[in-house]
Amino acid sequence: MRDRASDTGGESPGRRARGELESGVLAVLWAADRPLTARQVLDGLPGDLAYTTVLTILSRLYDKGMLVRRREGRGYAYAPARDEASDTAARMRTLLDRGSDREAVLARFVSELSAADEQVLQRLLGGSDPGRPGEGV
Amino acid sequence: MTFTVYVPLVVTVVLAVLAPAARRLPPRAAARSLACAALVTATGWLGSLALLSFTGLAQIPEVAERGHWSVAALRAEDPVSLAVAVLGALGLIAALGSLAVAAVRQTRQLLWARREAAAVPGDTELTVLDDEVPQAFALPGAPGRIVVSRGMLRCLGDDERAALLAHERAHLRGRHHLYLALWRLTAAVTPLLRPLADAGGFVLERWADEDAAAHVGSRTVVARAVGRAALASAAAHRRPQLAATGGAVPQRVRALLAPPPAPRALPLVAGAVLLALCCASLAEAASDSERMVVSARIAQCATARPAPVAADPDGASHRHPHCRPHRHTRPL
After folding, report:
1. Is A58 in the same domain as A114?
2. Min distance A113 CA to chain B CA atoms (Å)
3. Which of B154, B244, B266, B303 is 20 to 30 Å from A1 at the Cα level?
4. For residue B261, what is the DSSP state?
């Protein structure tokens, strides 16, 4: 967790950092298509985290029932618990389908694209993405 | 009064024209300035309309009688034509009605979001939806939640996922939903403030983008995250696109790939001067109209009581309570 200290007040930094770490670990596990060990989770997290920190976060999330785990070697491999997430997804989906009124309070990560936007975006990303050099510029 | 009462209306128009320029300013300052501008101009707009309709209303004989002022004296000052006053009154009624509707709707939406955020299982900041369709949003509440679908997490790389979380977190930490609510309320007062609301919505996204860039330590990573997420969502939805939202994502990506926007004082100072002008004119117009009413009351006393009854002040005050030596303390 870098250079966030001065940003906003509120809850204690330790508790906030823990919440942020939990989010990061959950995101890594959900993005993977198989259970991950603590070491693999650590690899998927940006920044320099201690291995033991990741272990702590994993076991806390497991205690909360957010994760399932199975033995792998000397440790565990973790995967997200999907039951509640599907329920939530179903509810969120109906609320998003209901339309504009309620959706208005949600700050969405990305808005919709027009066909022209899509082309512009492809070109912009082509220029910045080291994985795909010189595409369409 | 003759022209000062119109200044807030003119300032509103000028700011509506200038608002899109705020998109290029450093986003945090731009969001705060736009919020301030929207609040002041909406208040100025309502105040101007109220003063205009009051000067018209005050010329109705029944109203003048209740207020104990002279219609003739008020007309002699000729503040505004009756037609303008009627327009002002209609505008005021429309603005207040629309504001009330918007206030109810905004409150309902925010309460709904709070309930929904509280109903999400678990106590983690991040809620993942088990859904292939990529989506991500911040659900304001106490505490707010970051809601992201599995499909969205899978289309992003490790750094980009961190950028996405930081972006949504910035929305929640900065209480951006309150800015949005403010802009929607002010746009309900007058549609002229819609450009401020539109520019505001955009700079909030930019603000969250810049916060995310500071958090992950790279503007390019955030640019890629935004771009990838938008392309993946577009591919998943494939429905007729809304022209109104066009261009926002490419603009954000372009801004992130360019150097960070330099702080610029001139637009902010210009905006502050306009707002100060708006407040000063409204205050001036209000005190003008009070002065007119006061002098119309004095005129009324002079006609109603040509021969002062100095010996019987009590009797005089029974008939015309406002003809006693003046104390300018009555509100308008």
Report:
1. no
2. 6
3. B154
4. P
